[in-house]
Design a protein that fits this description.
mainly alpha, 5% strand, 5 helices
Length: 164
Amino acid sequence: MASPSPAPSGELKEALAQLDTQTWPVQETCYNVLVKLLENVIKNPSEVKFRSVRRENAAIKAKVLDCPGGAAVLVAAGFAEDADTYTLSPGASVDHFEAFVEHLKVHAKAQHEAHIRAVRDEKIAAAKKEEAILNEMGGFARGRHKLSSGDKDVAGGGGSASGT
């Protein structure tokens, strides 16, 4: 069994905290692209094209670099920032990437679960609010009639027009 992954660096914690301020759809897209970029480095450590991320790449820019915290995650992973690219030097070890990616996945899953809980809680709050409004309105709002014991028997149709 693999040893537990080391605790994330302060740099990564700060980057993830920035990323967490975004809406879940933005976070989810950013996490997915970051994981894919880093997994490509793990699978192909000697491929230069996977060790470099161009700032001008429209998809990467929109999904990662324009997202607060996205570029900081790349830097925390070991990519060096320069004018045109984020580059992982040819001599840089990628041994820590597996633990890094695992931590990123665990964090993304936790954020997703928090999002699901928040959505659920909003639905519950809306249902409770609706329930309270219906309770204030009384029985007719719920399709029930407030009948006292002295009223006509509504179920028996007392005085119906059918002539029975």
